[in-house]
Amino acid sequence: MTNTPRIRLVISDVDGTLVTPDKQLTKRTIAAVRKLAEANIAFAITSGRPARGMRMLVEPLGLRTPIGGFNGGIVVHPDAKMAPIEVKAMPPNIVAPIIRGLIRRGFDPWIYQNNEWVLRDAKAAHAEHEQGNVQFAPIVTNDLESHVDGVVKIVGVSDDMALMERCEVEARERFGDIISAARSRPHYLDITRPDANKGEFVRRLSRELGVPREAIATLGDMSNDVHMFAHSGLSIVMGQASEDLKRTASRVTKSNTEEGFAEAIERYVLGDVESTGARYAEF
Questions:
Q1: Within this chain, do residues 209 and 229 fall inside the same structural domain, yes or no?
Q2: pTM to 2 decimal places
Q3: 72 and 96: one domain?
Q4: pLDDT tens digit string along 220-248?
Q5: Are 108 and 184 found together in one domain?
């Protein structure tokens, strides 16, 4: 067994990881993030959500690091205005074909342009739930193809899991290395630029904060978190994740219904420093 360097940066997914199924931060989670700050460990979040949809987390978590929305497709300052630092928009000429392909296969497509969310039917499956999560309303239009400029993320929404898996593969085969396609939730297929993924967000913070990969811990629960796991020294997957995803991570914690995030921070990140004052995790 070898030891990892002292963890100096923790980066977490939001939905399914940091928050409960009803999208709440628990007292124990808030306390765990506060303990990270007290230990001089930086904390950051990245999500398939638009950055605007994470504004409510900034104050309770005391966020000071850049925030990665749309799986890293947009990076913003953690302030009231959430001013963009970087926006990775998709080439306009591929947006319409992707939208048409999703509709043809039976998906309900959503478009995100910077901080705007555009869809065809506000009463379609999962739209109302998503509005509750991000806490802002979508723009409703029958002409999605008129919104091809500045698109950071397209989401294909479907409750047909077989269709979701098949289309994830088909999107990658059809568009090759010009898009990234991965599920952020079981019923959401996120399509972005290939460099708009959580792994690139981890790499960005690593450079900006001067923290080597080996001293970074990441937490997630879905396939779009694999990129993040690959660029960190300690990867922690939530207990409700698939067995395939669990095999990609260093550690498995409890589910997000059982305080899995806080448990992971206390046990795998802070546990060793409290007992030894030196190291945070062992492999």
A1: yes
A2: 0.85
A3: no
A4: 999 889 999 999 999 999 999 999 999 99
A5: yes
